[in-house]
C-alpha cells in the first residue's frame, strides 16, 4: 500500500505480481517470501517510468486540523519519507520481511538496507515528535 500510495494501484501491483508468477509457472509456496515483493517492486518501477506526471501529483497531504486520528499522523509520517525509506519500512513492518529478505527483494546490499531502515525510523520519530509538540 505504501509503495503504490493508493488502494487501486496497490491492487494493480498485487494482480500484476500474481499474473507474472502464473505466467512463469511459479508456485508461491516454492519461492522465498521476498520474491512476490520483488515482482511487485519491479512492476511499480515500470508503472512509475510510464506515468511520471501522475507520480508528481500522487501525494497530496491534507492540512492538519489538530484533531486528526493517530493513524493518519503515522500515514503522513510514512508519506513524508523518500521512496527508498518508505519501501524498506513497508516491507519490514507491514510485510514482515527481515532486512536480509528486503535486501534480496530490492537487489540492494544488506548494509544499505540497514542504513535506510535506521534513517527511516529516525525520520519517522522526528516527524511524529514534531507533530506531537505542535498539537500538544
Q: Whole-number radius of gyration?
A: 16 Å
What overall geometry do the principal axes of the alpha carbons give?
globular
Largest sheet: none
Termini separation: 29 Å
CATH superfamily: Winged helix-like DNA-binding domain superfamily/Winged helix DNA-binding domain
How much helical structure, as a percent, in the residues? Answer: over 70%
Structure in words:
This protein is mostly helical. It has one domain (7-135): Orthogonal Bundle (Arc Repressor Mutant, subunit A). It is 72% helix and 0% strand. It is built from seven helices and no strands. The longest helix has 26 residues, at 110-135.
Descriptors:
136 residues, Arc Repressor Mutant, subunit A
Secondary-structure blueprint:
Layout (H helix, E strand, L loop, with lengths): L6 H18 L9 H17 L1 H7 L11 H10 L3 H12 L4 H8 L3 H26 L1
Helix pairs in contact: 1-2, 2-6, 4-7, 5-7, 6-7
Summed up:
By secondary structure, the chain is mostly helical. 72% of the residues lie in helices and 0% in strands.
